[in-house]
């Protein structure tokens, strides 16, 4: 018989042991493919409780995976252009009160994924977003130059966030 796992961390200093790193976005819509591109830059994590996955546009897949007992989620995604294309931003997602908006199994809308997890009886773990302000989501394969230049800094940011989570630091 296995020992019961402690509850997910809620306060600074509590243990985080299982981290899901999820790259999301559509590689056929230019800069929207930022999340998958960053995941491809990341080396395998030495800690077996850290899983890095390119979910692309598979929102339903991510929702079902979030039903597992994750302590934290690191979501890598394209962000709207707010005047600084290529700028990498790291922030805590607030998804506690999002209404269910429906879920397209072949699209990726984080709010809808989080709503689906709750609808299925799960709990969305504390979530940190590592994102990049984009230039264009026009139909094309490949990132624009400013977003391409942000891949290495974003990969470094993801590694730092994961290390902080594993070292019992709330981000």
CATH topology: Rossmann fold
**Could you list the spans in which at least 5 consecutive residues all have pLDDT below 50?**
1-13
Whole-Å distance between the termini? Answer: 33 Å
In the residues, how many domains can be counted? Answer: 1
Give me the number of helical elements: 5
**CATH evolutionary superfamily:** HybD-like
Kindly state the mean pLDDT as a whole number? 85
The CATH architecture can be named as 3-Layer(aba) Sandwich
What is the name of the CATH class?
A: Alpha Beta
Largest sheet data: 5 strands, mixed
Q: Element order, helices and strands?
A: EHEHEEHEHH
**What is the SS-derived class?**
alpha/beta
How much strand content do the residues show?
A: 15-25%
Q: Could you give the order of strands across the largest sheet? A: 2-1-3-5-4
Helix content: 25-40%
Strand segment tally: 5
Q: What gyration radius follows from the Cα positions, in whole Å?
A: 16 Å
What coarse outline follows from CA principal-axis ratios? Answer: globular
Structure notes:
The chain has helices at 34-41, 59-65, 110-119, 145-149, 151-166, and strands at residues 19-24, 50-56, 72-79, 88-92, 127-133. It is an alpha/beta fold and 171 residues long. It has one domain: 3-Layer(aba) Sandwich (Rossmann fold), CATH 3.40.50.1450. It has a 5-stranded mixed β-sheet with strand order 2-1-3-5-4, with helices on both faces.
């Amino acid at each position: 018989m296995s020992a019961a796992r402690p509850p997910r961390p809620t306060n600074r200093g509590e243990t985080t042991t299982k981290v899901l790193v999820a790259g999301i976005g559509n590689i056929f819509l230019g800069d929207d493919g930022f999340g998958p591109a960053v995941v491809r830059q990341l080396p395998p994590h030495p800690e077996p409780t850290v899983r890095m996955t390119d979910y692309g546009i598979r929102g339903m897949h991510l929702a079902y995976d979030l039903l597992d007992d994750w302590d934290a989620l690191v979501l890598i995604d394209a962000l709207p252009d707010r005047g600084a294309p290529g700028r990498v931003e790291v922030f805590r997602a607030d998804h506690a009160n999002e209404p269910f908006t429906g879920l397209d199994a072949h699209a990726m809308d984080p709010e809808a994924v989080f709503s689906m997890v709750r609808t299925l009886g799960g709990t969305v773990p504390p979530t940190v977003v590592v994102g990049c302000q984009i230039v264009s989501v026009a139909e094309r394969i490949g990132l624009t130059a400013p977003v391409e230049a942000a891949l290495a800094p974003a990969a470094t940011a993801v590694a730092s966030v994961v290390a902080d989570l594993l070292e019992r630091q709330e981000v």
